[in-house]
Q: What sequence folds into this?
């Protein structure tokens, strides 16, 4: 592994043909980035709109790509899975891939706000991130992800682990 590789955490979600799209999304990521760190897959109710339940997980990759190049690559994967840009923020998705963290980067980098604020807002992002990086530290707050989860009140956000053979 190249010493210039940056640890990146991505969130993946789907509520349209979700098993197929998550599996295919993981295959696409693996084809580009090699070995993946993969959290358990969680099922959760749709947030912000009335829709089918989502599958969500967090994936760790290492990459030498700059944020702009990585964003372009991920948007291409979403498009390959039928994702249409310009749809409502809260809507059903074939495949949604978001950069959660890019190393210790903080701020707007190539138009991407890092770390992604969903880490602090949604159990379906924070819980799988804690599973994958239990000792990880939020680049902006300096708090351990485990502590953020303990202090968060996600009672209204129901989610549960699903069997997801890879």
A:
């Amino acid at each position: 592994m190249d010493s210039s590789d940056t640890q990146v955490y991505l969130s993946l979600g789907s509520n349209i043909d979700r098993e197929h799209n998550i599996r295919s999304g993981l295959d696409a990521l693996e084809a580009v980035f090699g070995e993946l760190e993969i959290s358990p897959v969680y099922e959760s109710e749709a947030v912000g709109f009335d829709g089918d339940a989502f599958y969500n997980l967090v994936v760790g990759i290492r990459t030498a790509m700059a944020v702009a190049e990585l964003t372009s690559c991920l948007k291409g994967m979403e498009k390959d899975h039928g994702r249409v840009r310009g749809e409502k923020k809260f809507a059903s998705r074939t495949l949604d891939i978001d950069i959660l963290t890019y190393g210790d980067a903080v701020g707007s980098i190539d138009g991407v706000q890092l770390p992604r604020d969903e880490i602090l807002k949604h159990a379906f992002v924070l819980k799988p991130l804690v599973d994958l990086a239990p000792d990880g530290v939020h680049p902006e707050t300096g708090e351990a992800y485990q502590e953020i989860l303990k202090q968060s009140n996600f009672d209204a956000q129901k989610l549960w682990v699903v069997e997801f053979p890879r």
Q: What stands out?
A: The radius of gyration is 15 Å. Residues 14 and 20 are 9 Å apart (CA to CA). Strands lie at 6-14, 37-38, 41-44, 54-63, 96-102, 107-109, 112-114, 159-162.
